[in-house]
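Exam review. A common question shows you a sequence with its structure tokens and asks you to describe the fold in words. Practice with the pair below. Do the first one on your own.
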Amino acid sequence: MVTMGPGQNPATGPAGGNGGPNGSTGNTVYSALIAGVAALGGFLFGFDTAVINGAVGAIDATYEPGSLLLGFSVASALLGCAVGAWFAGPLANRHGRVRVMLLASVLFSASAIGSFLAFDVWSLTFWRVIGGLAVGAASVIAPAYIAEIAPARLRGRLGSLQQLAIVIGIFVALLSNFLIATTSGGATEPLWFGADAWRWMFLAELVPAIAYGALAMRIPESPRYLVSQSRVAEATAVLRRCIGEAAEERIAEIRATLRTDRPPRVSDLLGPRLGLLPIVWVGIGLSLFQQLVGINVIFYYSTVLWQSVGFTEADSFQISAITGITNIVVTFIAIATVDRIGRKPLLLVGSAGMFVSLTTMALLFGNAPVVDGEPSLGPVAGPAALIAANAFVVFFGASWGPVVWILLGEMFNNRIRAAAIAVAAAAQWLANFAVSTTFPVLSDLGLGFAYGFYATCAGLSFLFVARMIAETKGKELEDMPEASTAEADRVRT
């Protein structure tokens, strides 16, 4: 999944230090710690979006909503995500990054309690949308905050903490679902105080939601926001701890950009190609392809998917948890390589690997014999499909999962970054909503058809990256040109 977003939206300014050869590298441990706290928003992002996985079958059995309404209920949080991502930037510019993190903590907590108490599918959908508002805000604020406090030499790796937190959140949600369902004997069985197990799956989110708010109150505010509020001494102190002796130089750069900055507007994005600047279309394209490959189908529906092809409920929960572990492990690959190999090569390798693994899944499901209306994979095709599904997660988690978020925080210049990221993030959540809502309907047409569509999108994503993406590795955010893709360069010439 997921996965998964900032600069001026809340931050139009610098990443927070270059750590170059002529300056101090700052306190790497301190930068990593406060980046880790901000990335807890990513953990809740992952937990909130994946916790529905274990509850889908129980919600279907409890409320019998039908395929379309079930898909809408599962994906409803993503509508909130789009809204939260759109408004998080302006709120953060006005009230500060930390206060928006605290607001997200409150919304996560309310969603957990409300989903636990839901009395029908519509009330559950409402509280899932509330959680989506928090996810959308966290998807923008955490990467932006990290970009603002991180030295440039570490920005890719610290930015990857967001994706690492997301995949850990996904795994913890899947593991929590597995443990709760195992303890109760099934997702629809009563657990503590007579409440069904699937309700406790949602309430489990309350613990990390409260922890997120408590820890957010202990980290410093963004240097760029502090300078914008004329709190220069505080901003200098924060940057000095993060990047060392280069803090004063960076403060001067922030002040210079703030003098020429104005509130971001969507009109800043207008350009010659279908009404938008080429670089904005590139950001939208990255966001769309990240979702159109179908990664969140794995994390939202895998439990019911494996049950539908012959695995038991207990085995399906266990398989989903193993997939979550795989997702975590491969994210470390991205963290270790993104600042050495670069963004574009990782995306190309990821696209190729996803195309092969998704094509394999499409062929296996498409050619499986149908028993009682469902494909039956059998003793050979079943393990092969499991391998292909986890290979898909490997290639996504080591590339498109973290790298898209990193690029969205880097690729836009200061003038357009806020509005551009808002548009790209909203497009990402809307694409996620479309994919998640339509999967039950597509699976009714045939799993081979569904995965064939996702495989086609993976193949197209390779062509998109090869033609449209330029490398941003090692560049300061202040140095990003008006457009940073090969296509934009061709437009200018």
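Now try the second one, then compare your answer with the model answer below.
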Amino acid sequence: MTDEQTFATKLSALIDAARANGEAPHSYREMSSAIEAAGGPAMSSAYIQQLATGKRINPKIHYVEALAKLFGVPVTYFFDGVQAEPEPARGEAKLMAMRAQELSPEGRRQVMDLLDLVERYERAERHKTEEP
């Protein structure tokens, strides 16, 4: 299963659960309106449907955040448990990458510098604990 199918499957599951429980919104149009009413980004009903069916992939993070808020799930819901990578932090790593896409080139460089710094620190800490 690919990441895109997983996102579509998870979004479809949320939509189906909301419909089955009689919770609003039921239609893609209602979802679009609810996201906009909550101050989220403008998302057409067609775009939401395309995400749910897997016809559109890799939504920007602000769309993922809006969908997560609409359905009352954490953003990582869409990325946790993705197959093909065993680490539990896979969802967090994907979320970090998506958020980085929204940054300017300078912002991405700063994030990379910070990651390098944290990595060096953790490596030094591991080295300290390995010494006799």
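Model answer, second protein: Confidence is low (pLDDT under 50) at residues 1-5, 82-89. Helices lie at 3-20, 28-37, 45-53, 61-71, 90-101, 105-130. Full marks require stating both points clearly.
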